[in-house]
Amino acid sequence: MCPVPNGDAEVGRLAGSAGGPARAAVVGTGMIGGSVLLRLRDAGLDVAGWDPDPATRRYAREQGFACPDTVEEAVADRDFVFLCGPLPSLPGMLSRVAAATDEDCVLTDVGSTKAALAAFADTRGVGHRFVPGHPMAGADRAGVASASPALLDRAAWVLCPDPAGVVAFRRLAPLIIDVFRARLVPMSPTQHDTVVALSSHVPHLLAGALAGAVQEAPLRDAVLALAAGSFRDGSRVAGTPAERTANMLLSNRERVLEELTRVTDYLDKLAGAVRAGDAEALTSRYRAAAAARTVLAGRNFASRERAFPVAGDADAEVAYLWELGAAGGYLSGCRVDAGTVSYIAHLPADAGPV
Amino acid sequence: MCPVPNGDAEVGRLAGSAGGPARAAVVGTGMIGGSVLLRLRDAGLDVAGWDPDPATRRYAREQGFACPDTVEEAVADRDFVFLCGPLPSLPGMLSRVAAATDEDCVLTDVGSTKAALAAFADTRGVGHRFVPGHPMAGADRAGVASASPALLDRAAWVLCPDPAGVVAFRRLAPLIIDVFRARLVPMSPTQHDTVVALSSHVPHLLAGALAGAVQEAPLRDAVLALAAGSFRDGSRVAGTPAERTANMLLSNRERVLEELTRVTDYLDKLAGAVRAGDAEALTSRYRAAAAARTVLAGRNFASRERAFPVAGDADAEVAYLWELGAAGGYLSGCRVDAGTVSYIAHLPADAGPV
């Protein structure tokens, strides 16, 4: 784990239920979980970690973290628990942590798909205090040695509020915004999974196909010797740990396959224009594609404040939040004060009103 | 155009046929051509440029370059001419330049495909002094203002020697190696076109398909807001000028479509494993793909010298050179001395003997 950068979290706003600093636990202290742990400690929270791997627990203790031998001890009496283990472990761990924590303990996770886990939480009766989450950060690495508080700094961080869990969302959102300086993107679990299929999962499929095909090609050595930037960039995430990529893709199967057809349809049109020698069609399709890159290069946002009564219509509040995320917007503030919850929202300046 | 970095070219080895410094001309002084021009001047060559655009010619003159109004004046009495215009202009320009230059003037180009132009040069009877070339460098930009001598520094630079043109190759190779500090990759034109289909052209298709599909997706704004590194990298070259990408793909149609099927076959296998929920197959395919990335990250080369009699079997010399390129190797030296041509060759340490 690396040194902690300057944190500008307002720790006073993150007081725990017992009056002292908020108490948080991180379950699974690999690359992402370790980074969360470092950042929470930097922000002045009372933190504990746990990992199924004894060596990782030992390492965390050497870094000065409380890291008991059982997950139950680690999460007892905590205000917030972050589930940061591998995707397939999350349902089982969510049940275990839910059973070991109080009703006012907010649970969240950092897994790369959300719909299945959100549904699981509902069936287990913890949907009202589990807020599915997904920070958009990562690296071609894994393991606690790759953890760094900078990894999550200013990341886009999806949280999935639900009418039944809006109170938990309002408690977790300020922590995510303040501690991680995050752009908090509120979305429904299914919106999230559709969006990441295109923004992350399908790109992993394309990168794997490109690198895999070259690996099997007769002229492989010459191709790699002449690898242009286009190949290097296009195949980069094929170097990500294979199990993690497989877990990610399999956890979002239906949506990955559905969004993949969008991309292969466009690919077929490009290939058709190449086959037909149709320079005009090819150029116009590349111009359309370039428009997406222009948006990525920089977008103007308009900010506005939006308030809801704390005891009001949770459906309306959540509908507003989901719509904000679907329109490419994000939150930079969430404050509950005198019966009102106020959000500071940022929306692409060219989007319609939300 | 930007300032010139330190050049370590041995100008003495690049003497022109008239005894003074070698005389070179660059036809088409956009991003690549302008970069070639700057670098040649830095190495002490006597250079002239020409561009069909009067404003670009004016700009080159303001930078202190000789830049006459006609291409015929620019290339007259030159030892080397670099054709750096857009791909579709190259056949016409090759004919024009060939007619305006002497028999001992070596012609080369920097276009991104080679087989068609090499065949054209043969039909026009200039195959013996035209050496097809392709420096593997570029950027998401175009135009003379993007030219920079650093752009081509230490690039992999393909030249396509031919038995009929081996003398021209032996003259051009030292210039490319010394002036640009290039890793010179010798290949046949068809090998080159097959290799760049996978190392550059198909990656452009995948990037275009990814960015284009997202641009048309209902949740486009949310996808771009959550664009992970995988999307950013995977779509980067979709931001390249559309006409240039279209020209490049169309100039290598058959091979692009053929190599694309390798990639879509691998993609189908990945998607099939996702559909079947087969984590093992998915993981093992990603492991294979990651092997290509490991090679990219760094490869050991073994160097050896190889000599041929200048008046010997050109077929054997060229066969050796083509094989070197196909095996992922490159040249860092080419010297003609006392009836012998000596190459310093570098071959991946894990490759068989060449």
Automatic annotation (TrEMBL), chains A, B:
Any single GO BP term: tyrosine biosynthetic process
List UniProt keywords, sorted A-Z: Oxidoreductase
- Pfam families in alphabetical order: PDH_C, PDH_N
Q: Which domain of life is it from?
A: Bacteria
Residues in a coiled coil are: none
| Signal sequence range | none
Molecular function terms from GO: NAD+ binding; prephenate dehydrogenase (NAD+) activity; prephenate dehydrogenase (NADP+) activity
Q: Does the keyword Oxidoreductase apply?
A: yes
Q: Could you tell me which residue ranges the Prephenate/arogenate dehydrogenase domain spans?
A: 22-304
Assigned protein family: Belongs to the prephenate/arogenate dehydrogenase family.
Q: Which PANTHER family match?
A: PREPHENATE DEHYDROGENASE, PREPHENATE DEHYDROGENASE [NADP(+)]
> What is the protein name given in its UniProt record?
Prephenate dehydrogenase
Which taxonomic lineage does the organism of this UniProt entry have? Bacteria, Bacillati, Actinomycetota, Actinomycetes, Micromonosporales
